[in-house]
Design goal:
Layout (H helix, E strand, L loop, with lengths): L1 E13 L3 E13 L3 E5 L6 H8 L7 E6 L2 E2 L5 H11 E4 L11 H10 L5 H14 L15 H12 L6 E5 L7 H16 L3 E5 L3 H6 L2 E6 L2 E7 L6
Parallel strand pairs: 3-8, 3-9, 6-7, 7-8
Antiparallel strand pairs: 1-2, 1-4, 4-5, 9-10
Helix pairs in contact: 3-4, 3-5, 4-5, 5-6
The chain binds adenosine-5'-diphosphate (2 copies).
Family: Belongs to the ABC transporter superfamily. Macrolide exporter (TC 3.A.1.122) family.
InterPro entries: AAA+_ATPase, ABC_transporter-like_ATP-bd, ABC_transporter-like_CS, ABC_transpr_LolD-like, MacB-like_ATP-bd, P-loop_NTPase
Keywords: ATP-binding, Nucleotide-binding, Transport
Length: about 230
């Protein structure tokens, strides 16, 4: 019943010196769960998230998304799986500054072969859903941090992914914006999507049904908290 599974997943960066960022991590994330990845800074959490989403290749070991083992598929197929199945929200949002909210969300749909008109309609619908119906024509620099984060979430949901991966989404938000973010995340999860969040936030961790602890690139714990929090 795991939607994501890893086997001895390892990553070594070699840029003049070797950094073992991740060491033989075995984990499973149940379908439809809200999971968080926690641990000290610089210990391999982002690396793990990137490998789970097929944004980077492991040095050794394997990642399965459903029945597909990511290291065995070619780059173009991997890009297709990523676009169709996975939505990413990065810490610094990665919005394109010259584009409006609407256009930033539309961009995500361009590769999927959706018509321009459908792109616009769906982008507007998603932005309404995250409470930005009145900011469709605003550019990122005209939005608050919390609002940019919501554009990034709308963009991540554009292709109706099964999995939403978030890298410290509340890292740059004040507490009110964080609270709103938690509500958004809860809604997305309630729709049946699997959500995996790298976080230092206790409030995010408190919502999670599944907690993964990483230290020194190793799995310290992979805990199902169902019943404890829900
Ligand atoms: P965390 O997300 O827990 O802060 P990271 O996964 O970003 O940790 O980093 C784990 C280790 O790998 C750190 O020592 C970091 O410096 C190193 N690292 C991360 N990305 C790269 C990269 N692209 N090139 C070289 N080293 C990297
Ligand atoms: P949030 O609760 O979403 O973080 P804020 O209370 O920070 O929102 O912002 C309130 C209003 O001020 C919003 O409508 C937003 O568009 C506007 N705003 C916030 N930051 C900026 C900015 N740097 N430039 C222009 N408008 C801003």
């Amino acid at each position: 019943n795991a939607i994501i599974r890893t086997e001895k997943l390892s990553k070594v960066y070699d840029r003049g010196f070797r950094t073992v960022a991740l060491q033989e991590v075995n984990l499973q994330i149940p379908r439809g769960s809200l999971a968080c990845i926690m641990g000290p800074s610089g210990h391999g959490k982002s690396t793990l998230l990137h490998l789970l989403g097929g944004l980077d290749r492991p040095s050794s070991g394997k990642v399965w998304l459903d029945e597909v083992e990511l290291t065995s598929v070619a780059a173009d197929r991997l890009a297709e799986i990523r676009a169709r199945k996975i939505g990413f929200v990065f810490q610094f949002f990665n919005l394109l500054p010259v584009l409006t909210s609407l256009e930033n969300v539309q961009v995500a749909m361009m590769l999927a072969g959706v018509s321009k008109k459908e792109q616009q309609e769906r982008a507007a619908e998603l932005l309404n859903l995250v409470g930005l119906g009145d900011k469709l024509r605003a550019r990122p620099n005209q939005l608050s941090g919390g609002q940019r984060q919501r554009v990034a979430i709308a963009r991540a949901l554009a292709n109706d992914p099964e999995i939403l991966l978030m890298d410290e989404p509340s890292g740059n938000l004040d507490s009110r914006a964080e609270q709103e973010l938690l509500e958004q995340i809860g809604q997305v999860n309630d729709q049946g999507k699997t959500v995996v969040i790298v976080t230092h936030s206790e409030s995010v961790a408190a919502m999670a049904q599944h907690r993964i602890y990483i230290r020194d690139g190793q799995l310290m714990g992979n805990m199902d908290t169902t019943g404890e929090n829900r």
